[in-house]
Amino acid sequence: MKIHPQTIYNNSNPEFIVLPIKEYKKLISLLEDFEDIKEIKDYLDSPEETFPIDVVTDLSNGENSIKVFRNFRKMSQTSLAKKVGVSKQYISQLENNKRSGSSKVLKSIASALNIDIDEII
Description:
By secondary structure, the protein is mainly α.
């Protein structure tokens, strides 16, 4: 892209650059493309796990977070219960909000689901 700037001076010092509108718009478009590329690169370089929109939607709709993340990880209540060292019924009661888990159990569940405890409390 060839740019045709006009320089405006103030006491022999360059003060402004004037561009034809077409060239200005092209530069703005290239800058936006660059920023998009940077955001994608930052996302790809990020060590943080991201979640699909259906997980985010379920959580924002008030679904039980243990159940949402368990389903996302494709785990059964039985397999989660075995990893945590509790009964399947205990997991079911937590997911149906019929029971509050102890901090120890919730930490174990978060660890088994590979999420931060803040995601489930």
